[in-house]
Design the sequence.
């Protein structure tokens, strides 16, 4: 899945957190330019998800990108610029990180999984 992120000057560790969920950041727009205040052109065809960081955007910028995404049938996710908030919002869309222990063959043999490698 490819995402367009709108808001925030720097993303920090957000791209790596999204990569763990199988989401690649194809473009990042800060939203501070005057051109972003006006009507937004159609989003790129490779964008599958629009992420809006609400604590860094004006209402006009959010409305423009949201309308453009909805016209193209692209899901919109709005949250604060925080990995915890982003993961929680993505879980609301049905996207959540997998437990790495549940797929480990060693844990499957011992009856482990999400609860750990040792039986209770």
Sequence:
């Amino acid at each position: 899945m490819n995402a367009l992120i709108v808001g925030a000057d720097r993303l920090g560790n957000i791209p790596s957190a999204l990569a763990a969920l199988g989401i690649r950041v194809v473009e990042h727009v800060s939203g501070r330019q005057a051109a972003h205040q006006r009507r937004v052109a159609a989003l790129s065809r490779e964008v599958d998800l629009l992420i809006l960081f609400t604590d860094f955007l004006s209402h006009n910028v959010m409305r423009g990108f949201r309308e453009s995404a909805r016209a193209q049938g692209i899901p919109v996710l709005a949250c604060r610029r925080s990995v915890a908030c982003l993961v929680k919002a993505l879980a609301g869309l049905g996207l959540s990180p997998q437990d790495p222990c549940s797929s480990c063959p060693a844990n499957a043999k011992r009856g482990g999984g999400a609860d750990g490698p040792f039986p209770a």
Remarks:
- The chain has one domain: 2-110.
- The helical segments are 14-19, 34-37, 59-71, 83-92, 105-110.
- Residues 105 and 112 are 10 Å apart (CA to CA).
